[in-house]
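User: Show me a protein chain along with its predicted structure.
Assistant: Here is one chain, sequence first, then structure tokens.
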Amino acid sequence: MKRFASLLFVSVLGGVITLGAYKAFVEKENIVVDTKAGEPKFVTTNYNGATPPNPIADVDFTEAADKTVHSVVHVSNVSVQEGPSNLFDFYFGYGGREQTRVGTGSGVIISPDGYIVTNNHVIDNATKLQVTLNNNKTYVAELVGTDPSSDIALIKIKADDELPYLAFGNSDNTKIGEWVLAVGNPFNLTSTVTAGIISAKARDLGKGQSFIQTDAAVNPGNSGGALVNTNGDLIGINTAITSQTGSYIGYSFAVPSNIAKKVVDDLLEYGNVQEGILGVRGSELNSKNAEELGIDETAGFYIAKIVEDSGADQAGLKEGDIIKKIDNQNINSFSQLTGFLKSKRPQDVVNVTVLRDGRENTYPVTLLKNQTYVVRPLGIVVKNMSSKDKKRFKGSGVKVTEVVKGMENYGFEGKLIIQINDDTIEDIDDVKNAIEGANNYNALSIVLLNQEGEKERLIFRM
């Protein structure tokens, strides 16, 4: 028994000595880091020795926010519509009782005497407009004018005192990654401020428009509100979100201030929007259509057609040219081209840089008044008569220049439209008014004139 105890003691002692020697001379130091389950591990690196970017705490939003909230208003749209009051009215189309609907949005005061810019869809079909300021004073507003294509509207209130207002900034100078504030009235909450960055510029939502994209939270009721930079300059009018739920999911869109300002100026001076037309048709370039066209360029706007007698035609632009810049603004997409042109008027001169035969050349182009109109219900494009057309045809009207596939058999192309229903046609404005007023007709009657002076009548069911 004593012998066994002695052997056990020697064994334990030997193990202790061996373990101590291993810990002292062999085992390296281990550093144990305790992390919470599911929490990512980050390692800060600085490969080039540059100073790390300024944290968000270094950006001061308070001055811009204080400047903006007093200039952003709540807009109420009261509309009265007649709707069916029972199933009998619904099925047989009889008028029912009047129903009052109230829509809400935001607006931005842009002058001390009460002019307010908002979205067209905020005031659409309004029978009464009401504006509430940040100090809770309420005014009845009058509609000055609208431009549905840009979704901009101008309204005005009469206040006793000068109002706080925002000055338009230059949206062309904004940069991706720049901090911005969105101010509006989401969910009928007054003067809500959210912050974010500019995520993209010249964003096209499918209608040839050009928007500023931001990740500043915008929700229902923000429409018509202000998008401002950290100086408090108005760089956009909040307009839309893309969402399956109807609420903000990470990105929103604003009409650039240069477009909004131009629309406002036109409405005040002319009563409608003056569009400066370049006179080219084509498509933006990418790898796929560059391959189809047999060219190496994948950036720019490819000119497939020059409109006769347009500014581009008179300046010497040609089919096959690739527009790379306008007034030193890079053009890589259709929305960049249309966005730039929407800030211009007829008779404005722009410098268009095109790539032709491997060389870049710049041409001064005078933008002209729109001479063409797309008649979508008929699938045709009409144009005001040129001096050559007036000599060729024995009458006045608008010339059909293009026909979409499927409408060729009706014999439109190359002829004049001289009458639509009961309206005599002299120019494209007459066509536009006749088509927009044709909803009350069961049929659309078109009178054509050919080069021999013979009249033809076509009737289309709407």
